[in-house]
What does this fold into?
Amino acid sequence: MTTPKKTAKTAPKNRPTQISAARKAAFEVLLAVERGHSHSDDLLRGKAVNALSAPDRNLATALVLGVLRWQIQLDHQLHALLARPNAKLDPEVLIALRMGAFQLLHMDRIPARAVLSESVELTKQAGHRFASAMVNAVLRKLAEGAPSFGSLDDIAAKLALEESHPAWMVERWITSYGLEATRSICRHGQTQPVLSIRLATPSVETELGGTGIILEAGELLTAARSVAAGDITATEAFGESRVRLQDEGSQLVAELACENLDQKVKNILDACAAPGGKTMILVERNPEAHIVACDSSLQRFEQLRVRLAGFGNQIECRHAEANALTEDSVYDLALADVPCSGTGTLGRNPEIRHRLRPDDLTRQAERQREILTAALRAVRPGGRVVYSTCSLEPEENEQVIAAVLAATPNLRTLPLQASIDALLRKAILTENGANSLRHSLTPEGFLRLLPGAFHTDGFFIALIERIAG
It folds into this structure.
């Protein structure tokens, strides 16, 4: 690893240092995440961060996500510089060290002296004045040269440390997808995701061009764009929901759900609907259908209800547990985009890698099987269910489907090749996108989007039909 070419003097002892608003906000967010109080995504959209100026808001976001992405590697390097490498540090001291280390190693434009001064002051203001000298000394050593990773013979362990991912995740990905695909997955998890949007109508693009927004074509879908420059959230089109922020893989899930019945769809179930982006696509593609959108979280349900209020009676929002639905043979189509581990979204939600444990996958899978079973019961014979996750783990994907099919009669999986071809014929998919997706089909006909292979989050998508008994 290339060591940073920064020099730093000991932070002044007597002169108080003013901490920037961005670093103070980032420190508080990271401390809350470390203590398990909330998720970075929610905190970065909270009042404290929104009150910052745009440059400070951007810096705070970069600090929070950067520290979370590189935390495993940062901790390895920091502990190597401690007098007692195995010492347990107070959370406030640890966060100050991580923030300082990230800035020294990954943000070249920030002077080392400023990093040290503010890191020391953060430690003092957090009530750990006794530890401020240690913070200063460790970060000063880091600025002079980061410790090497040593000689790691284990390929998985070395890749995990280089790309700051848990070794157990890297090992299972190598087993499932091979070394090079795993390397791409990890690198994707260390980068800021592409900012993808969905255009409600083609004319919106012309309108946005007049506001200074620069867009690039989507990788898969003709209605998708990526934002190359400009603040899309400040536009009138965004405020009126004529353009929406949505990962292109997420858009694809809803498009595939809409392209699986030859006859007219009258009733649709969106079993796990929040935040509602996929529900909106279901409405766009099925303007005459009645859609029931459920979510189990009261907070997320209220946000969903407000977001979908403009669609009137076409969408019925329900605060309901998807695995507790008792309806039978009611819907033509159901979308079960189930809660999951989220290992396909580590670039967007970096703290998942620090919270998730292997045992969590089994617990997630139990609920996923229940949701899929309820959704399949809810569709009529001949009706279909699209099952999807943003997980890379077989326990939440193929194994869930296998277990449900083994326990439930009169079901069959349908290959997604025909749906991809139909979306291409209708010019919903781009030609290059369709070709890429065909190569991402599994032997069973399921679709897997691996991070790094596409500029999207990781997704697994399957199509299941309930047949007459």
User: Anything to note?
Assistant: Residues 446 and 462 are 5 Å apart (CA to CA). The chain has a mean pLDDT of 90. The chain is about 45% helix and 15% strand. The two ends are 62 Å apart (CA to CA).
